Amino acid sequence: MRQEKIAPMEGGGPSSVKVTSARAFAVRLLPFPNAGDRINVGVAVVAHGGRVECKFVDGLAGLKCLYGDAIDFLSFERLLSSVEASLKLERWDPRLPPISECVEFGRPFRVRGMDRNEVLSRTFHSLVKLRESNLQVRGLAVRSSAPSIVHMAPGFQSNLHSRVRTLLLARDPVRFSKMLSDEPIRLNFGLGGFEQIRLPLYDRTSGRAGDIINAYSTVDSVAKHLLRTLRNMVLLKSAEPQLNLRTFVLRPLSVGKHKEDIDNEIKLTSSALRAQQVDVEMVDSADELADAVVRWSKVA
User: Fold this and answer.
1) If phi over 0 gives left and psi between -120 and 50 gives alpha, with beta otherwise, what is residue 141?
2) Which pLDDT score is estimated for 12?
3) Strand, helix or coil at 122?
4) Alpha carbon of 212 to those of 140, 228, 281: distances in Å?
5) What is the DSSP letter of 30?
6) Distance CA 178, CA 231 (A)
């Protein structure tokens, strides 16, 4: 790593202090590339000359809390070991892609510190939040004996919304700038009062409202989001019966332990939604979901 000198401090102090300067980047895991979730699981610090120092999470118990048995944790742990080995080659070439579509390298940025261990540790704690202490604070309860899902991290549902929002604005910024609003929707029921709900897709002018469900999760979490959608759509249908309502579901493709249970939850809620004249469309990726929304937005 290149060594730099800092000018003497005012009021005395050492005449020079050696500082480590290097590039760093996050190593991200994509449990389901189609879903678009990106989780920082490690960092790499590249010294002058291409030598790499790495630090990764100790195990993937945190993912167990987020995805249950939907993914093969042992395979991902082996994958991260391979990624670490590939990064620690004699000289790392930034032009080389990751060894798997389930791994992504973040954009390199400049870091400085007193020594490379301090730089690596500080960068790791700044970028990697998938640590047991953090998950316990957020209420995700990592259990050392048998980790199980208690809550789904709220970010994973919003990650899909954000990804689809970006894709839609790139396709047609004029059309979707109105439909993609973060403001709550106020539904008036006359003497019955009013309700406020939130949906990622809503445009009273064009007469459309839609929800987006990320089913890459646990059975309980998927069921919770589907029931919320059903409630919101029933309220919308009652308050604004003229709306064209649709729910888009990103369904899991992998064969996880609870995939059949998740599919059953989707089928059950889809039947209830269709009984309320709410269309349901299944998709296999964020890009396909954005395409489906574009087609729906153009239907007269």
Assistant:
1) left
2) 41
3) helix
4) 23, 11, 10
5) -
6) 24
Integer Cα distance of 124 and 122 in angstroms? 5
Contact 290, 251 (CB under 8 A): no
| pLDDT averaged over every residue in the chain | 75
Burial class (CB in 10 A: 0-12, 13-18, 19+), 181: middle
* Alpha-helix residue ranges (DSSP H) falling in 107-202: 116-127, 132-137, 155-171, 173-179
SS3 59: coil
Q: How far is CA 299 from CA 276, 280, 292, 293, in A?
A: 19, 15, 11, 10
Closest CA to 104 of 37, 35, 23: 37
pLDDT digits (tens, 9 = 90+) for 200-242: 999 988 899 999 998 887 777 788 888 888 888 888 888 888 9
> Which among 164, 236, 249, 234 has a CA at the least distance from the CA of 203?
236
In the numeric block, the tokens 């760093």 are attached to: 24
Q: What element of type H or E holds 21?
A: strand 18-29
What is the pairing mode between strands 279-283 and 244-250? parallel
Residues 232-260, mean pLDDT to the nearest whole number? 82
Phi (first) and psi of residue 41, to 5 degrees? -115, -5
Cβ pair 194, 186 in contact under 8 A:
yes
The mean per-residue pLDDT over the stretch 93-119 comes to 78
Domains of the chain: 2-7+15-137 (no CATH), 155-298 (3.40.50)
Cα(211)–Cα(246) distance, rounded to whole angstroms? 7
Catalogue the long-range contacts made by 141-146 (C-beta closer than 8 Å, 24 or more residues apart): 141/65, 142/61, 142/62, 142/64, 142/65, 144/61
Over residues 35-46, the mean pLDDT reads 82
